[in-house]
Amino acid sequence: KDKTTAGYQVAEVYACRGENNKAFEWLTISFDTHDTGMLSLPIDPFLKGLRTVPRYHALFAKMGFPALS
Length: 69
Prior knowledge:
Layout: H1 7-16, H2 20-32, H3 54-62
Helix pairs in contact: 1-2
């Protein structure tokens, strides 16, 4: 109900389930609410399945992280 708490963790669950669209929906919410979980984006093993998706790279750049190789 409250999108300002645990949004990043909700995104992790969706990513693990292979529900990429829902995962990105929650990652966007997490970005917009300045969720500190977003700092784990580069190393989070639960999001490994998203790393080949262009939307992941766009979000990565939006966060200001160095480009992925």
